[in-house]
């Protein structure tokens, strides 16, 4: 089961790369906001998966949106991966979690990769590239790296690039991180759960699937050339939900033989069958952010009966890592199954 | 804000976004790098795959330069399609694997775009058998078409010719474009390698130089994974 | 009328009386010596075994000997490049380059093929010896390869036709072959399929697709009356197959509609005694193939094997349509006159098949496999040495492999599934529908890959004139 020593090392590797420790908070996705909502499965969802939240009755949902960066400094406007962690509250005070980010594919395949990545992709000085080096880039038909944001002195970009140049499996993930930008709203981005899960249908058939949330309002990023704003996402979401609920469609892609089932760095092509599993309606930003934004703790391995993990080693590693991290920061425990 | 932002700094940041820079670079840097690091045009058509989803709703994008580059040439092409409406429907219904087929005139090219199920050569071969005459009438108006018609008597050459006109489909995921180039070179190395991811833009530019017309991705599908006949059957339209 | 004496004999004949078969996989050592050898083989001079033609005259040959050349082989023999250019792409590229089309992935991928198939470019010529007695194989091989002057032996493959034409998995094979226009063919069972035009199997003749002709490589002496062969070493996982039948039978025993498949009390009809499980196993086996293991087609007798029904005279219309699964192996390979999506392709993708099993026969009652104690050691390698012959590899063998066997494009009810017997199945996603009398189906899941490719090559089977041409001094 959970290998606590590996789990601790994973969390430690993340903490070690922080600007400064953030005791009592998450070491990544530190800044986040808890939201309340409701999920209603589509009419076909129950024919693919017997999990309770797909049976068509509305289920209560807790969502936590977050900025990917670790640390207490909030930089909403920086180019960064965003998180959307969702708990479907099913009967018996139990939950089924689905953790997704705006990154479609991860950049490491397993724990060993992750440690190597952590070693190579350390926070390093990040400065504006001198003009003559930019000219040299342009002469080579390369695009010069972006200028640092105000206040940005260090980041992992250089190291991540070095890692990607060594490992082709990491290139897609890292390339996409480079382009990811900042959403205009947490409700205007697509979020992908990255790993493969197995869902069981009422007739016993098990299918390998991947989940994504797609915003009904559409995807929209801020202008990358504008000066980034540090704080706007929480207020935007609060204002938006006061006017009108925000909705997401839950899309489930069905894998085929030959698709990567245990490797979160490999995308599945757009030619796979895609099923609408339901609609999430976000109703309001929670009033108790301490409980619903901070103490709440998710785990991608907390799954309602009818959904199972694949053999993805990253998914497996997250089981322990998220528990360790939760304990370290005094997060709220939650029932397993 | 870092204080080292000088005039030159701002100039460089600005200059590469200007059309003048892009123009000059196209005339100087692009040919230079094309000579220094030559790239071969990547082959057209869908990426070979044995997986089911990849073998339904495949895209064909033909751009065929007309021999007569004038309104007359274009009208000839338009007429060749128009007068064969019956033949085209008969082919569509009997081959049974085509979702959509469109003929478009762009500049002095006749373009044929279609979405079909199954193997490309089977698709073209079955169409040669049913409506070879329509192909002959269109292809005879196209540069280099003479040598592959009548298609019925030049089946292999005709299929090859069509394949060569089928646009390269850039992968839907950006970095798979690099994999295509490595494949073409027979480079199947795995980690650790010594790549330079920042060269992706240049590689794309050079590929587009070698391959002026390409398809951006393999198409976006609303109901991927289903064949024509599956759709028709589920809609109770007969198949 | 076609001159049978100009064709290699294995194209239209099955050599059924010669159960021992050996394939010699050869590399050209010396071009001139190899050409001399070819010249000698036409008439059997200088001790070189004579190529068996399609016309045996009065005297049946004791042994048969035939050859096929790969593209590399044609190059090695010094075939002019103008001629080489006229060979079709798929042949030029070779079987390994077509792996994705053929479903040669995973365990079947060419990178995993054992020698000599791991070096496809070195395979130039595949010679086949057919004999009544085993010793004759050695004798002919010795004559064919007295030394290494002309050819180097890269490897051999050897098979033996089991009595009654049974193959591993226990089915009777060698029943259906196309019957050709203008060829008198007493060996073949009559059926109601249209006779295939000669161009189905020989270059230079009209094909089944109206008005279409395949390109004949020049000079005429080289291309005319030649044909192509997909030689395949197909490993069969027999223990897995039998185990799967067990699992499917258990599933059907519990299935509420299982009685529709086999009404209670009718177990004995299946011929496996009173055991319901044993009977259900046979029913599954029959449905996967489209024939009961004794050869009875489901299209004619879906409820039980019946030695009295015709083996080939059936079609997939009416009852034949309803009771033979759309996904059954023989129906996927040859939909006959049944409804298919690509209507134009009915009857156009037919193949001449020459196969022989290799490896020891499998004995379900012997020590190798005990259903109560599923066998978990290494199964000895066994399978089928298959030859799939047709005038266009692309339009026949490949077309069948990629769209019909492995995608199921021909029928929306099977699209998205693979052939249950020879398809590249993955137990995680595979399925197969068993038709019931009521029109419902029971879906089976979890079929593993029962057959893996362990080697093969595309070869050109030249006419005798072509062999003479290739054997002429340069
Ligand atoms: C080895 C790989 C990974 C490690 C070690 C890791 C580690 C962590 C840790 C320690 C936390 C804080 C958990 C807590 O204190 O509750 C966290 C949060 C998070 N992670 Fe990961 N993670 C990994 C992979 C991923 C992947 C593949 C995704 C993409 C879906 C992801 C998305 C998130 C999100 C969205 C959060 C915030 C959850 C929340 O709002 O509570 N992580 N991660
Ligand atoms: C080891 C693998 C295979 C086994 C055990 C096998 C077995 C059989 C059997 C038992 C039959 C019925 C006998 C008959 O009608 O003559 C058959 C028919 C046939 N098989 Fe296979 N087969 C295999 C692979 C293949 C492959 C790879 C192909 C084609 C690419 C193929 C093509 C055919 C065709 C065309 C028929 C005749 C169907 C008809 O005309 O009705 N088989 N096979």
Descriptive notes:
The complex is a heterotrimer of chains A (337), B (239) and C (474). With 337 residues, chain A is of the alpha+beta class. Helix content of chain A is 28%, strand content 24%. Chain A has one domain (4-109, 164-329): Beta Barrel (Catalase HpII,  Chain A, domain 1). In chain A, the strands form two sheets. In chain A, strands 1, 2, 3, 4, 7, 8, 9, 10, 11 and 12 form a ten-stranded antiparallel β-sheet that branches. A two-stranded antiparallel ribbon of chain A has the order 5-6. Among the domains of chain B are: 1-36, no CATH class; 52-168, Alpha-Beta Plaits. Chain B has 239 residues and is α+β, with helices and mostly antiparallel strands. Chain B is built from ten helices and five strands; from the N terminus they run αααβααββααβααβα. The N and C termini of chain B lie far apart (66 Å). In chain B, the strands form two sheets. In chain B, strands 1-3-2 form a three-stranded antiparallel β-sheet. A two-stranded parallel ribbon of chain B has the order 4-5. Chain B has helices spanning 7-15, 19-27, 29-36, 71-82, 85-95, 120-139, 155-165, 176-184, 200-210, 228-234; strands spanning 58-65, 98-106, 109-116, 168-169, 214-215. By secondary structure, chain C is α+β, with helices and mostly antiparallel strands. A four-stranded antiparallel β-sheet of chain C has the order 2-3-1-4. A four-stranded antiparallel β-sheet of chain C has the order 6-7-5-10. Helix content of chain C is 25%, strand content 17%. Chain C folds into two domains: 4-234 and 456-471, no CATH class; 236-390 and 409-452, no CATH class. Chain C has 15 helices and ten strands. Classes of the chains: A alpha+beta (337), B alpha+beta (239), C alpha+beta (474). The complex binds protoporphyrin IX containing FE (HEM) (2 copies). One protoporphyrin IX containing FE (HEM) binds next to helix 1, strand 2, strand 3, strand 4 and helix 9 of chain A.
């Amino acid at each position: 089961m959970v290998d606590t020593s590996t789990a601790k090392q994973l969390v430690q590797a993340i903490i070690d790369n922080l600007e400064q420790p953030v005791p009592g908070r998450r070491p990544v996705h530190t800044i986040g906001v808890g939201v309340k909502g409701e999920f209603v499965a589509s009419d076909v969802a129950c024919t693919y998966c017997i999990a309770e939240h797909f049976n068509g009755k509305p289920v209560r949902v807790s969502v936590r949106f977050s900025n990917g960066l670790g640390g207490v400094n909030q930089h909403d406007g920086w180019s960064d991966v965003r998180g959307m962690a969702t708990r479907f509250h099913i009967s018996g005070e139990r939950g089924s979690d689905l953790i997704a980010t705006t990154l479609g594919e991860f950049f490491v395949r397993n724990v060993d990769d992750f440690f190597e990545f952590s070693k190579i992709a350390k926070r390093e000085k990040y400065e504006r590239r001198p003009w003559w080096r930019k000219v040299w880039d342009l002469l080579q038909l390369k695009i010069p790296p972006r200028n640092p944001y105000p206040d940005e002195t260090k980041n992992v970009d250089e190291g991540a690039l070095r890692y990607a140049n060594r490992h082709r499996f990491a290139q897609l993930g890292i390339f996409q991180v480079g382009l990811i930008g900042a959403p205009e709203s947490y409700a205007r981005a697509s979020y992908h759960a990255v790993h493969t899960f197995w869902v069981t249908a009422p007739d016993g058939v098990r299918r390998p699937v991947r989940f994504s949330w797609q915003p009904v309002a559409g995807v929209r990023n801020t202008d990358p050339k504008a000066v980034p704003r540090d704080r706007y996402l929480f207020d935007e979401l609060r204002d938006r939900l006061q006017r009108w609920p925000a909705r997401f469609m839950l899309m489930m892609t069905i894998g085929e033989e030959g698709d990567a089932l245990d490797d979160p760095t490999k995308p599945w092509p757009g030619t796979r069958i895609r099923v609408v599993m339901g609609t999430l309606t976000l109703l309001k930003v929670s009033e108790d952010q301490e409980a619903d934004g901070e103490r709440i703790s998710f785990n991608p391995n907390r799954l309602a009966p009818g959904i199972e993990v694949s053999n993805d080693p990253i998914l497996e590693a997250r089981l322990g890592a998220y528990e360790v991290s939760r304990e370290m920061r005094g997060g709220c425990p939650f029932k397993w199954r | 804000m870092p204080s080292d932002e000088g005039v030159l700094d701002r100039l460089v940041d600005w200059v590469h976004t200007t059309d003048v820079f892009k123009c000059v670079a196209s005339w100087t840097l692009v040919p230079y790098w094309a000579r220094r690091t030559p790239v071969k045009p990547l082959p057209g058509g869908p990426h070979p795959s044995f997986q089911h989803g990849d073998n339904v709703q495949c895209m064909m994008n033909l751009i065929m330069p007309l021999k007569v580059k004038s309104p007359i040439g274009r009208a000839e092409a338009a007429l060749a399609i128009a007068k064969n409406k019956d033949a085209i429907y008969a082919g569509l219904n009997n081959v049974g694997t085509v979702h959509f087929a469109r003929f478009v005139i762009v500049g002095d090219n006749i373009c044929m775009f279609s979405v079909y199920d199954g193997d490309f050569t089977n698709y073209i071969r079955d169409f040669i058998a049913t409506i070879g005459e329509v192909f002959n009438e269109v292809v005879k108006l196209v540069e280099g078409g003479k040598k592959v018609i009548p298609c019925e008597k030049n089946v292999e050459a005709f299929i090859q010719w069509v394949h060569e006109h089928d646009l390269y489909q850039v992968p839907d995921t950006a970095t798979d474009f690099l994999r295509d180039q490595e494949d073409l070179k027979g480079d199947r190395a795995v980690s650790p390698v010594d790549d330079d991811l920042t060269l992706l833009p240049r590689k794309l530019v050079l590929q587009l130089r070698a391959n002026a017309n390409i398809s951006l991705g393999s198409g976006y599908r609303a109901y991927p994974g289903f064949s024509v006949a599956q759709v028709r059957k589920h809609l109770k339209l007969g198949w | 009328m076609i001159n049978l004496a100009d064709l290699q004999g294995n194209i239209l004949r099955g050599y059924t009386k010669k159960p021992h078969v050996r394939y010699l996989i050869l590399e050209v050592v010396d071009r001139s010596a190899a050409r001399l050898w070819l010249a000698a083989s036409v008439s059997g001079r200088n001790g070189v075994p004579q190529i068996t033609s399609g016309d045996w005259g009065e005297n049946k040959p004791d042994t048969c000997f035939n050859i096929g050349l790969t593209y590399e082989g044609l190059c090695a023999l010094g075939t002019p490049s103008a001629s080489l250019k006229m060979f079709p792409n798929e042949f030029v590229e070779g079987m390994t380059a077509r792996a994705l089309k053929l479903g040669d992935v995973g365990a079947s991928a060419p990178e995993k093929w054992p020698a000599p198939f791991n070096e496809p470019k070195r395979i130039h010529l595949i010679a086949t010896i057919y004999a009544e007695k085993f010793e004759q194989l050695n004798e002919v091989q010795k004559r064919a390869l007295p030394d290494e002057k002309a050819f180097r032996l890269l490897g051999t493959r050897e098979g033996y036709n089991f009595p009654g034409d049974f193959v591993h998995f226990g089915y009777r094979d060698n029943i259906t072959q196309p019957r050709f226009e203008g060829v008198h063919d007493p060996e073949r069972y009559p059926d109601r399929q249209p006779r295939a035009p000669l161009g189905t199997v020989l270059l230079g003749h009209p094909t089944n697709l109206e008005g279409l002709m395949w390109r004949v490589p020049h000079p005429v002496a080289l291309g005319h009356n030649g044909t192509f062969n997909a030689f395949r070493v197909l490993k069969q996982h027999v223990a897995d197959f039998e185990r799967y039948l067990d699992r499917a039978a258990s599933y059907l025993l519990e299935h509420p509609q299982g009685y529709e498949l086999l009404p209670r009390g009718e177990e004995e009809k299946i011929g496996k005694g009173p055991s319901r499980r044993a009977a259900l196993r046979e029913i599954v086996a029959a449905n996967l193939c489209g024939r009961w293991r004794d050869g009875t087609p489901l299209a004619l007798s879906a409820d039980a094997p019946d030695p009295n029904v015709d083996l080939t005279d059936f079609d997939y219309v009416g009852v034949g349509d309803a009771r033979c699964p759309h996904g059954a192996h023989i129906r996927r390979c040859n939909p006959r006159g049944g409804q298919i999506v690509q209507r134009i392709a009915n009857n156009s993708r037919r193949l001449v098949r020459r196969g022989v099993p290799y490896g020891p026969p499998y004995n379900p009652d012997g020590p190798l496999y005990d259903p109560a104690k599923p066998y978990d050691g290494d199964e000895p390698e066994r399978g089928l040495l298959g030859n799939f012959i047709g005038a266009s590899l692309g339009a026949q063998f490949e077309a069948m492999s990629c769209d019909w066997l492995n995608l199921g494009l021909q029928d929306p009810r099977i699209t998205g599934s693979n052939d249950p017997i020879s398809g590249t199945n993955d137990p995680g996603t595979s399925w197969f529908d068993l038709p019931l009398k009521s029109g419902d189906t029971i879906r089976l899941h979890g079929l593993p890959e029962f057959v893996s490719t362990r080697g093969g090559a595309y070869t050109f089977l030249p006419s005798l004139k072509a062999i003479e041409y290739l054997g002429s001094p340069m």
